[in-house]
Amino acid sequence: MSSYLLIVKSELPGAVAGFLSGDGSGSWYLDGRLLLLITSVCIVFPLALLPKIGFLGYTSSLSFFFMVYFALVIMIKKWSIPCPLPLSSAIETLQVSNSTVDCKAKLFHLSKESAYAIPTMAFSFLCHTSVLPIYCELQSPSKSRMQNVAVTGIGLSFIIYFMSALFGYLTFYDKVDSELLRGYSRYLPHDTVIMTVKLAILFSVLLTVPLIHFPARKAVFMVFFSHLPVSWICHILVTLVLNAIIVLFAMYVPDIKNVFGVVGKKIS
């Protein structure tokens, strides 16, 4: 959960700054820790208080549409950036040329940065902790119904991420950045659509945290409070403590690569 919040802390100030004119350095609304605290209190904590994971279906749908928007923009912007890439950051002409070797796709490309892909891919399995709570809240739960839900969810996610990765690579080729949207910001500065995509992705990440929180809280209840009757006071206190821990952890961890590496290895 802290990994998602760490993404919000590191990326939200830049997304907000993109909509502002002038230098706002030092302003409170560009402080990543403060923005993380505000979004956690106003969005994450209220959603985490919901008693059933089924209530989060609406926010999950919203998060999914944010990702669809992201994929569509990546696909469309393929034709907004020329190839080969210009030497300057800003694009002055939009003449697309595929005459150089820089504009030829490679089926396989390995580098030292490829090592980060393995723990990052393993990190994606973190959401699988929500499978059992979702199964328990299905109408007439069965193995076949749960399998249909899983196949549909994984299939849609695969299509979105595959198309985003494919068109992102076909836009930048060997110059693709480890953070895809950063490349678009470099060559399309102050592009309103790209800035809205950044915010959409951050909200999508933020809305994922309550989904991961639900099984974590369930596990705490089963281990430490299984002998006690369920009460709203205990429910709120456990939710508050868990959220406080993950927010504090996200606020003071400096590098997201360390988190992805540790969490990815643990999950794999």
From TrEMBL:
Question: Which keywords describe this protein according to UniProt?
Answer: Amino-acid transport, Cell membrane, Disulfide bond, Membrane, Transmembrane, Transmembrane helix, Transport
Bilayer-crossing residues are 28-48, 55-76, 116-136, 148-172, 192-212, 232-253
Q: Glycoprotein: is it a keyword of this entry?
A: no
Q: How does it sit in the membrane?
A: Multi-pass membrane protein
**One Pfam family of this protein, by short name?**
Aa_trans
Localization annotation: Cell membrane
Residue ranges occupied by any Amino acid transporter transmembrane domain in the UniProt entry = 2-264
An example molecular function term from Gene Ontology annotations: L-glutamine transmembrane transporter activity
Report one GO cellular component: plasma membrane
Listed PANTHER family? AMINO ACID TRANSPORTER (PTHR22950), SODIUM-COUPLED NEUTRAL AMINO ACID TRANSPORTER 6-RELATED (PTHR22950:SF366)
Could you say which protein family the record assigns here?
Answer: Belongs to the amino acid/polyamine transporter 2 family.
Name of the protein in its database record: Amino acid transporter transmembrane domain-containing protein
Organism expressing this protein natively: Bambusicola thoracicus
Query: Upper taxonomic classification of the species?
Result: Eukaryota, Metazoa, Chordata, Craniata, Vertebrata
